[in-house]
Amino acid sequence: MKRLIYIFFALATVGTLKAQDYGRNLGAVSVTYNGSGSKTFKYTDDLVELSIPKESISEITVQAKNVSSSPIYFNWSESYFILNEETVPVVDNAAGSAAAFGLATKEVNSVAPNAKIANGSKIDLKIGSKKGMFWDYRDANDYFKQNGKPREDKLILVFEQDGKKLEKTIPIQVYTSKIVKQLKK
Prior knowledge:
Blueprint: H1 2-19, E1 24-25, E2 30-33, E3 42-44, E4 48-55, E5 60-66, E6 72-74, E7 80-83, E8 86-92, H2 93-100, E9 115-117, E10 122-129, H3 137-147, E11 151-161, E12 164-175, H4 177-183
Antiparallel strand pairs: 1-2, 2-12, 3-4, 4-5, 5-10, 6-9, 6-11, 7-8, 7-11, 8-10, 11-12
């Protein structure tokens, strides 16, 4: 009996390690960024430095650092996801968490004001969606079955500086263990 348990755990570990080649494991799905199979995301230009220190099935934390010489603003109301070929508005999960704990209150359907990011400083944007979960195991598998490739979702972040709106796109690929098995054939 002990031997069977050890074999089971060994096989589960090997399967998990192979699935992790396809990004960060979030339970039922794994995600990668930039189509590279990377478990991390980093982007830098002359305005902003972006990274994703953590994510879950229903929240992505994007760290945004202003690398320009003047303040920038993150525009919550114009930022959005493209999830399974559907446009979905983002929500400020930090404000939602604060309201849940009684630390702040605001109308449920109100839009978060633009977040100011001073030059040389950073902010953690706790991004959720009005849809709830970003990725569903069945949806990812169905998309792969119909199209022969993993889903290509996107997170579009809108920043403003000196009255100009600037979009930054984070490409996201969604995998399940079933998709990984098909790709390795």
